[in-house]
Amino acid sequence: xxxxxxxxxxxxxxxxxxxxxxxxxxxxxxxxxxxxxxxxxxxxxxxxxxxxxxxxxxxxxxxxxxxxxxxxxxxxxxxxxxxxxxxxxxxxxxxxxxxxxxxxxxxxxxxxxxxxxxxxxxxxxxxxxxxxxxxxxxxxxxxxxxxxxxxxxxxxxxxxxxxxxxxxxxxxxxxxxxxxxxxxxxxxxxxxxxxxx
Length: 197
What we know:
It contains five helices and eight strands. The chain is α+β, with helices and mostly antiparallel strands.
């Protein structure tokens, strides 16, 4: 039996016009989305780690993402997860990533570049590259595309259209066709990632 292919995060970043968000929310663009489901708005804080840009130069972004308890229970601790985003291909605007959350796999990925890495230490034995809070509005469009609108606490905004897929070439083509079909919202500008902003 052949092993199942790993799903990759295929994404395209875009600049979004905040004045068009109410039109998006009402699904009254021309043309309107075939289907648009709000996934809500939530906040999270990302802390990115590196050492003299060693990881980012190798297409690896290591972050600790912390989000408040989604049940709004003030006595519950915030959820926190360590993630490694590994660029498979592309650039900052149009890219494919493998997202890894298993601490042992992350350690195996990081240690060849930074032998002093520790998944257990507070700062992982690395420098804090950036820390910021993001407010994210999420949508599921046309039944399959994740559309996110991110605004950071330092004033940067970026949108992303994402698909989880095995075949990145097919997914990029589908994303391009989707964005072209709704140019009234996605426009032509490429967005910059939050760590570039």
